[in-house]
Amino acid sequence: MAASLQTIHDLTNFTTEQSFKINSLPVLGAEIVNIDLGRVLNENDFLRIKQALLSHHVLVFRDQDITPEQHIEFSRLFGPLQIHVLKQFQLPGYPEVLTISNIKENDKPIGLGDAGAFWHSDLSYKEIPSLGSLLYARQLPAEGGDTHFADMHLAWQTLPTHLKNAIEGKQAEHTYIKKYAELQARSPWRPNLTQAQLEEVKPVVHPVVTRHPETGLNTLFVNENFTSRIIGLPQDESDDLLAQLFAHSVKPENVYIHQWQDNDLVFWDNRSVIHLAAGTPDHLPRKLYRTTVEGTRPVAA
Ligand SMILES: O=C(O)CCC(=O)C(=O)O
């Protein structure tokens, strides 16, 4: 991961270890209890968290009481942070923090309320997609608002042979604007993208099957929100193949459903999972803050 161990060592050499527990969740993911992410982390604690992320792909830190500065500081231990193209939804004063919320103030949305309406891996539409995202619950609805996570290593492992053969050696285009018009039709408050924003999110091409840079595991690296076509196939064949890959990826046996608790901070590995915001009734306020850690250029398996 990007933060050098020396930096971590310098930061944490003299802090005491925290005695947190890591409990596996069903299908994928782990819950971490008895840790305070607001404290400077001891090097051993950092390494345990990093290893847990690689093993479980989704980490649920319970009962966090942290400031935006602490959220950013913890996130930065894993690499530089990426700034979302919709800058109007930054937490004021903190460009690294994207507000995800259905709340409106003076008739204006304070956050990206429909983020995650389609399955995706964050920033797969960038040349350098995200290593992971850290989403911190600040206000939760009484019902709804779950986030679903699908294991894309398992998706690859269980892919039928004819589909594995169909995608062997293939690359796919990812574009931020694939579903943008559809999202604008559902959420009329979604701003039109400026020319400068469009320049920031030009289509990119990534391998369909990638190798996780740290574990070496193969991953199916396509998602409904951003993957627009398989290079070299006619569009109808590509649409049909992608539809089969999307449907396979999110079979219930591949999916962990996170039901948020107050003050959860969830850290997921965008190289291992895709995720979906299952939806919140409009009248129930929901607000979360997200940081996004930069990864590396995806490499073919
Ligand atoms: O709000 C959620 O549950 C998930 C948001 C999401 O998909 C994202 O931040 O990429």
Detailed description of the structure:
The protein is α+β, with helices and mostly antiparallel strands and 301 residues long. It has a single domain (5-294), classed as 4-Layer Sandwich (Double-stranded beta-helix). 24% of the residues lie in helices and 27% in strands. The protein has eight helices and 18 strands. The protein has helices at 5-12, 43-56, 68-76, 152-157, 161-167, 180-186, 195-200, 235-249, and strands at 21-24, 30-33, 58-61, 90-91, 94-101, 104-105, 108-109, 130-139, 147-151, 171-174, 204-207, 209-211, 218-220, 227-230, 255-258, 265-269, 273-277, 287-294. An eight-stranded mixed sheet has the order 1-2-3-16-8-18-5-4, with helices on one face. A hairpin with a 5-residue loop joins β1 (21-24) and β2. The longest helix is centred in the last third of the chain and has 15 residues, at 235-249. The chain is globular. It starts with a helix and ends in a 7-residue tail after the last strand. Residues 100, 115-116, 122, 133, 135, 147, 275, 277, 288, 290 line the site of 2-oxoglutaric acid.
Task: Give me a quick take on this structure.
The chain has 301 residues and is of the alpha+beta class.
